[in-house]
Specification:
- The chain has helices spanning about 5-25, 315-320; strands at about 35-40, 45-55, 55-65, 70-75, 80-85, 90-95, 100, 105-115, 125-135, 150, 160-165, 190-195, 200-205, 210-220, 225-230, 240-245, 250-260, 265-275, 290-305, 330-335, 340-345, 360-370, 375-380, 395, 405-410, 420-425, 430-440, 445-465, 475-485, 490-495.
- The longest helix is centred in the first third of the chain and has 20 residues, at about 5-25.
- The strands form 6 sheets. Strands 23-22-25-20-19-26-21-24 form an 8-stranded mixed sheet, with no helix packed on it. A 5-stranded mixed sheet has the order 1-3-8-5-6, with no helix packed on it. The chain has a 5-stranded mixed sheet with strand order 10-12-17-14-15, with no helix packed on it.
- It has 4 domains: about 15-135, Sandwich (Jelly Rolls), CATH 2.60.120; about 145-275, Jelly Rolls, CATH 2.60.120.1220; about 290-425, Jelly Rolls, CATH 2.60.120; about 430-495, no CATH class.
- The protein is mainly beta.
- A hairpin with a 7-residue loop joins β28 and β29 (about 475-485).
């Protein structure tokens, strides 16, 4: 006789079946034979545990850490259903391979494979297989992963790179996204304070990272404003460099550093250098670092091209007869109460003489401040500024014999001209505006990197080296670009690596 059950009874039976299934999983019998053992991997790593599976065998996994996240993938054999037991031999996780779980306790765990989800059917055949244990626990980010945990960098007189990493770094939330250098996250943070000079240079160096990006912010760590972003301005390969000169002394600067594309993260170098408030001492571009003139037969030549920048210290603008665009400075010692500077040649000017061209010049007595910066200038000559190519003379008088004075030469309306002055010989007039120079000691060589902002008829750089700071030898030459008003990068590797200092 066929009996038809009411619908409500069918539902009851189905519910009971599902309940019993999950209960049977939780009571999976513990395999009684151990075969195959290994140690659980650390975060970010994997380990293969070889196991010869037969009826009732299991593998032993030591060193499981509570809170770590694991994925176990069984390979080979008939078993595709995994059961993980804790140190008390209690089943705690089960499911098809690969099985992902978070350990709730530490110690030794056990794993076995079955043919079905009821843990009732072992692999009946003897076969040697393996399981891959992967620790997928997210690795901790660097300590300076967020702006409020930024590492403090102190501006120094010279660049000394410190090595950091952005490995496992995240993207700082709530901060304006940089608009350069392929930013996709993975940033770390630094902070520094603008020194009294008001100018700092932030430079980076390759490490594992070969292509970096950097952005500078102001504000507080919880409310930042993007100031500047840079990609490849460093002379150290495709690395960033930023000069901060628009912020008042005492301003806190926030520096965001990342790897372009966020796919080759790890180590890099960074340094913060204070740029002297009086300008660069490397050329006669500033009042504080003039070329030296000596009276005698002959002459000297220089230029008013863009190799020189506008330097208007103290009251220069008010005391000069023209505007300042690309001036340079030449110091001399007065041998008499009157000294003259005869411009015998003004050539190769760029400007049209009908619109104002040529050079302009004057002599000053300069009074420095406590920092050595030119703070007050006393005009002691006529102001030579014909506005065309007309030759002329600058006469300085009355002078104190033995006193120090400075001749300042500028291009009229920024004109770029070559000029010659008779009866004076100059030293320290450089054809190259060297903006940066860095030396880094690496394992296989000493890496020299430098950058020029402009070059005037520059043939080559001669690289000299000394191990005692006194006796130098030439170890190579690097060709210059000749004439340039753009930034140019150079490098030279010294393969003779020795211990101690190298000059």
């Amino acid at each position: 006789m066929t009996r038809i059950l009411p619908t409500t009874h069918i539902f009851t039976l189905l519910f009971a079946f599902i309940f019993v299934s999950s209960a049977s999983i939780s009571q999976c019998p513990f395999p009684f034979i151990g075969f195959g053992a290994g140690t659980a991997p650390s975060p970010g790593n994997s380990v293969v545990i070889e196991t010869c599976n037969f009826v009732g065998e299991h593998e032993v996994v030591n060193g499981v850490v509570a809170g770590d996240q694991y994925t176990v993938t069984y390979s080979g054999g008939a078993g595709v259903y995994l059961v993980i037991y804790d140190a008390t031999q209690t089943p705690v996780f089960w499911g098809p391979s690969p099985l992902a779980f978070t350990a709730q306790s530490s110690g030794t765990f056990y794993a076995a494979s079955f043919l079905d989800p009821f843990c009732s059917n072992f692999d009946p055949t003897f076969s040697c297989n393996s399981s891959l244990w992967s620790n997928v626990t997210p690795l901790p980010p660097p300590v300076n992963d967020l702006p409020c945990n930024a590492i403090t960098l102190t501006p120094a007189a010279t660049c000394s790179y410190a090595t950091y990493t952005n490995d496992n770094a995240t993207a700082a939330p709530g901060v304006p996204v940089p608009d350069c250098a392929g930013y996709l996250g993975g940033d770390v943070w630094f902070t520094t304070t603008v020194p009294a000079s008001g100018i700092i240079l932030i430079d980076t160096q390759i490490g594992v990272i070969l292509d970096g990006g950097m952005a500078v912010y102001t504000g507080t760590c919880g409310s930042l404003t993007l100031v500047e972003c840079d990609d490849d301005d460093s002379p150290n390969g495709a690395m960033p460099q930023i000069q901060v000169n628009s912020q008042p002394p005492g301003t806190q600067i926030w520096i965001r550093m990342w790897e372009v594309g966020n796919n080759n993260n790890e180590t890099f170098g960074i340094c913060v250098t204070e740029i002297a408030s009086c300008g660069t001492p490397l050329t006669n571009d500033y009042c504080e670092s003039p070329a030296q003139l000596t009276q005698g037969p002959g002459n000297f030549s220089s230029t008013t091209s863009a190799i020189y920048t506008a330097d208007s210290p103290g009251n220069l603008t008010a005391s000069f007869c023209g505007s300042i665009e690309n001036n340079s400075w030449y110091q001399f010692t007065a041998l008499s109460t009157t000294e003259t500077f005869n411009f015998t040649s003004v050539t190769n000017c760029v400007n049209d003489p009908n619109n104002g061209a040529g050079v302009q010049a004057a002599v000053y007595q300069v009074f420095p401040d406590a920092s050595g910066c030119c703070s007050a200038l006393n005009l002691v000559s006529n102001c030579y500024s014909p506005g065309d190519f007309t030759l002329g003379t600058v006469t300085a008088t009355p002078l104190t014999i033995g006193g120090q004075y400075i001749l300042m030469v500028d291009g009229f309306s920024g004109d770029a001209c070559d000029f010659t002055i008779a009866n004076w010989v100059a030293t320290g007039v450089l054809p190259v505006e060297l903006s940066h120079f860095h030396g880094v000691s690496l394992t296989e060589y000493n890496a020299l990197r430098w950058e020029t902002s402009s070059e005037l008829d520059n043939d080559y750089f001669n690289i000299l080296r000394s191990f005692d700071g006194e006796d130098f030898e030439s170890i190579g030459e690097v060709d210059g670009v000749g004439f340039s008003q753009e930034v140019n990068h150079y490098q030279f590797n010294d393969g003779d690596v020795r211990s101690g200092k190298v000059y």
